[in-house]
Amino acid sequence: DHIRARKQLGHTREDGRWFESERALERYRRVSSVAATKARGCVRYRRDYVHPDAVPMLRRGVRFDPELGMWLGSRDRKRLDKGWRLQDEAWIRPQDAGRVDEGLWLVEGDWLPLERAEQVRSKIDRMWTIPGPTVRLHATVRREIAGRAIHEMEGAVDDLRQVFGVEPLLPLDVCLLRTEEQYDRLAVGDAEGRRAPTHSSGFHVAYSAFFAESWFRPEEGAKSPRFSGMGVGYWNEDYEYGDLFGVHNARLAAALSYVDAIDPSRETVREAEESFDEGGLPAAYAAHYEEEKVLPAWLRWGGAVYAERFFIDHDAASDRSPTWPREWSLENLRGIGELDPMEEIFRADIDPSDRERVRKILIERGLLVAFLVDGGSVVTEEAHGRLKAALAERDAEAIAAAVELVERVLVGEREAVLRFAGFE
Q1: Does residue 17 contact residue 66 with C-beta atoms inside 8 Å?
Q2: Structural element, H or E, at residue 18
Q3: Which of these, 44, 203, 339, 365, could form a disulfide with 302 (CB 3.0-4.6 Å)?
Q4: pTM
């Protein structure tokens, strides 16, 4: 909170908060008005509009600190007043604050220089947990890569607000691993049974991120493991082009967390948590998890792929078009073949073993969402508005009707979609 230091760094203060860039301030202004908060499905709580899922915590006196990226109770706030500090989610005693200033990291009781801390945290079972106002990142990557990934994930969240209108309660839990081998191991579990699988459909082999719907972890004070489902991706900086693909993988992982959070499978998760006392997840858990969804798979994946591949790159170099991700994706799609029939894009069952087919269907779904958001058609804009309004109301029947309208409109606009995608 040192004003001169903040200003020297180019930070701007508004509404009692510091913003580290004009982009962050612009994003805040875009979503902070009363009209914007209502449109995102927020509800009135005392003098403010808040996310509905935040109300129970606020009633218990827990408050979100956007600077720390954490929900803090009264005891936590008293600790901070007494000089305690937070390093990620670790509480640092006042007498040890100097170690933080020296650049040391508290890792499992030991103070380590960053390079050594990164070595320890590079293991799946010892990963970083990095809090933030938009994303809470669980990662085995280096801190520098984590920072770059979080920046991309924040952009993906912005993109998905445009798609769905509503947003989940932030921050989102997202996982980013440093190698594809770690990514596979987290999905399928440990061969010796020390770590259970976190994903059941095998979809992780077909694309560059998956949602870990079967991830349950022990929680202090809980009798059984608690749901830890989140999007999972990898960023391997040691591979050729690894940094380039890492951007897309990070965005997709965050997007999968987002779309699951606005359309959760709460009842299935509740039953699963209770079933751990009887020997683990039910056999039909994953199928029930999917069946509970209100939004169809094509729209959930389409939104996620939109944030992964069809975004506007506001940080693009001066010699590169900000729309390069979209141009690249459409070039990929045209190289694979003709656009599938709309009904097939909506309903196709995806076989993870057919990676080329998976890639084509997912890019096509991202294309349909891109057209819905950016196509400029009056009829699609109206259908899109109906969908966002229904999601804000949390009305399952209205959502189903709005999705049906969106699909009908997209079928009628097929020729316009083809032109939008650059097909002859």
Answers
A1: yes
A2: strand 17-19
A3: 365
A4: 0.90
Would you state the pLDDT for residue 317?
85
In the Cβ-directed half-sphere of 378, how many Cα atoms lie within 13 Å? Answer: 0
Question: Phi and psi dihedrals of 16, rounded to 5?
Answer: 75, 10
Q: What is the pLDDT of residue 14?
A: 77
Check residue 195 and give its pLDDT.
83
Distance CA 325, CA 308 (A): 8
Residue-wise pLDDT tens digits, 153-165: 999 999 999 999 9
Contact call for residues 26 and 12 (beta carbons, < 8 A): no
Task: Give the count of beta carbons closer than 10 Å to the beta carbon of residue 32.
Answer: 13
Concatenate the DSSP letters of all residues of 284-353 into one string.
Answer: THHHHHHHT-SS-HHHHHHHHHHHHHS---TT--TTS-TTHHHHHHHHHHHHH-SPPPHHHHHHPPP-TT
The residue assigned the tokens 């944030």 is 307
The tokens describing 119, both together, are 């070595």
Cβ 362 vs Cβ 301: under 8 Å = yes
Q: Prior bond to 131 cis, omega within 30?
A: no
Structure-token match 């579990």, residue found: 189
Positive/negative CA dihedral, 190, 195, 196, 197: negative
Distance CA 390, CA 292 (A): 17
The answer to whether the Cα torsion of 160, 162, 167, 170 is positive or negative is positive
One DSSP character per residue, 96-156 reads GHHHHHTTEEEETTEEEEHHHHHHHTTSGGG-EEE--SSEEEEE-S-HHHHHHHHHHHHHH
- pLDDT, one tens digit per residue, over 341-392 is 999 999 998 889 999 999 999 999 999 999 999 988 899 999 999 999 999 9
**CB under 8 Å to 97, separation ≥6 — which residues?**
83, 85
* Residues comprising the chain, all counted: 424
Backbone torsions φ then ψ of 326, nearest 5 degrees: -70, -45
Cβ atoms within 10 Å of 62's Cβ, excluding its own: 16
Confidence of residue 47 (pLDDT cuts 50, 70, 90): confident
In the prediction, which pLDDT does 11 show?
Answer: 87
Instruction: Please say whether the beta carbons of 86 and 94 come within 8 A.
Output: no
Please tell me which of 219-233, 265-279, 324-338 the model is most confident about, judged by mean pLDDT.
Answer: 324-338
